[in-house]
Amino acid sequence: MSALADETLHDSTTFEHLGRSWTIPTKRNAAHLIWMQREMRLGIVASDLMAAQAFLDPAVSKANQQKPDQFKAFLDLEPDDGQLEEFSQKLSKALGLDETGNS
To answer: Which residues 6+ apart lie within 8 Å of 10 measured at CB?
Structure first.
């Protein structure tokens, strides 16, 4: 495995929400982006839930397999709309996607 692939699949970051810690990959990879594109084409409207699944569900990306039971645990909490939105915001911040400015 190349150093880039190893970094992409094994680097993670953790944040707190809904009374527990969530570990996600530190970077979005092609598998995450392809999966999200496909879901959007299908007309999925729950974008906050889609983001949670993209980064917690081990079926989406090898990078998500560090903590394989997280998405099930997330669904077991039955988060409401506000909790989903807050999770999505924290996930974006953990990925560094909420920074402002031009890249």
So the answer is: 63, 66
- Region for 2 from its dihedrals, namely left if φ exceeds 0, alpha if ψ lies in -120 to 50, beta otherwise: beta
Residue type, 5: A
- What are the tens digits of pLDDT across the range 26-49? 888 899 889 888 888 888 668 899
Q: Which two tokens stand for residue 13?
A: 């970051």
Contact 17, 87 (CB under 8 A): yes
Q: For residue 87, which amino acid is it?
A: F
Residue 87: Cβ-neighbour burial (10 angstroms; 0-12, 13-18, 19+): buried
The whole-model pTM stands at 0.74
